[in-house]
Amino acid sequence: MTGRPRPAIAELPAYRPGRSAAAAEADHGITDAIKLASNEIPFGPLPSVAGAISSGIEQVNLYADHRATALREDLAASMGVDVEQVTVGNGSVGLLQQLALTYCDRGDEVAMCWPSFEAYPVFAMLVEAEQVRVPLRDETFDLDALAAAVTPNTKIVFIANPNNPTGTVVGTDEVEAFLDRVPSTCLVVLDEAYAEFADAPDYVSGFALRATRERLLVLRTFSKAYGIAALRVGYAVGPAPLVEYLHRIRAPFNVNAIGQLAARAALADQEHVARYVAMNRAGRQRLTESFTAMGLRVAP
Fold first, then answer.
1. H-helix or E-strand containing 109?
2. What is the pTM of this model?
3. How far apart are CA 98 and CA 206, in angstroms?
4. What does the DSSP assignment read for 123-145?
5. How sure is the predictor about 163, in pLDDT bands with cuts at 50, 70 and 90?
6. CA 182 to CA 154: how far, in whole Å?
7. Which residues lie across from 45 on neighbouring strands?
8. What three-state secondary structure class fits 160?
9. Model confidence over 90-142: pLDDT tens digits?
């Protein structure tokens, strides 16, 4: 060996992206495959986003604004919070990695329900934290069982709401009851990568709860409803002291300048988000009805 990685790294599984439609076609001798597994918006960029990307090309010789000040100001204004309560990352998954590096040492606990987003256990392994996995109940996060699994050694709890990959949500009352039970020594991370698509009547974003929770952080992304997955822009909203810790551990210029410009343009055009969400809802209903007619059970 030319180097000696930490044992945790030697055992760390590499991230496995979803297979392409072309690869599936080649393997199975089919044509016109449609890839759904990565949850990508199937359209090109909006004109405003394309224009922002074009304008940024002329400045690729310059470093980006490390703290993404203009984007953070736009996000803060859209949510009615102070800019010090907002940070950005290389996709929301980049922020998940920053959280693990910020809060966890060897032997600390990271709790989650399972199955959920595959990055949670990977980042727990990265920092040599112990994983506490609680089974889903009816494809949904079982917050009662998850709260019971939290111990004084639990540093972070990840809650994907809606959950990836099952698409289910937990309601506001359940989340509030969970937050009341979890000790203040534990950081609760609400991963809301798919929040724009949630339409259950009892669902509410963590933004509505954050003001009263000192240890609650909400993650969002521009990869899904905003349709700029390739540019890797995510953001986190939470108490200013917690956000400042995340600033400290950010890799220099980890959100590139073109991504920042595109995200600002996408955020300013909420009409397209509403169109994408409506199209997703119609497609989801069509799939549900078709699968049900085939005798398959579909998670709500």
1. strand 109-114
2. 0.93
3. 20
4. HHHHTTPEEEEEE-BTTB--HHH
5. very high
6. 10
7. none
8. strand
9. 999 999 999 999 999 999 999 999 999 999 999 999 999 999 999 999 999 99
